[in-house]
Amino acid sequence: MDLTALANRIGETLLARHWYLATAESCTGGWAAQALTSVQGSSHWFDRGFITYSNQAKQEMLGVRAETLAQYGAVSEQTVIEMAAGALARSPAQITLAISGIAGPGGGTLDKPVGLVCLAWAVRESVPVSKAQRFQGDREQIRRQAVESALQGVLDVLSTS
């Protein structure tokens, strides 16, 4: 499914529930929010997007703990869970998504290679869910796959909430 189709399905589902969505993005730089807001009528279900590229921004805007970043790094499930929870706490949205990863071409390590992306989703009064995925391709392809996975994850979470 392409990004537009995913965004449309998310919008229909959120609208039916009278829910809002917020995003917290790092490596995708707002691409998920852009895909979502490209849908006509998205103002009825999209609340806001946080682009927190630096660790300082993650801490200041989303409340990610310095200890989490020091122990696990910005690209970790622990960090994206705190990003998703922070977006939920700092918005009226009922569901959030968070993305942090290494899009490349540089910046990868043996433990955290280029293409590693961590994603999380949080719903009010529920335990956040997260996953780490390894995507292949160039920087744009990795970022696009990350957005697609994040949007699909919203639909998956909504189907079980």
- What characteristic shape results from the CA principal axes? globular
Low-confidence sequence ranges: none
The helix tally amounts to: 6
Q: How would you write the strand order of the largest sheet? A: 2-1-3-4-5
Count of discrete domains = 1
Work out the strand percent. 15-25%
Please give the radius of gyration in angstroms.
Answer: 14 Å
Determine the fraction of residues in helical runs and give it as a percent range. 40-55%
Can you walk me through this structure?
By secondary structure, the chain is α/β, with parallel strands linked by helices. It has helices at 3-17, 31-37, 55-62, 66-72, 77-89, 139-160, and strands at 21-25, 46-51, 95-101, 116-123, 129-134. The chain has one domain: Maf protein (Alpha-Beta Complex). The chain is built from 6 helices and 5 strands. It has a 5-stranded mixed β-sheet with strand order 2-1-3-4-5, with helices on both faces. Strand 4 and strand 5 (129-134) form a beta hairpin. The longest helix is centred in the last third of the chain and has 22 residues, at 139-160. The protein is globular, with a radius of gyration of 14 Å. 44% of the residues are buried. The mean pLDDT is 97.
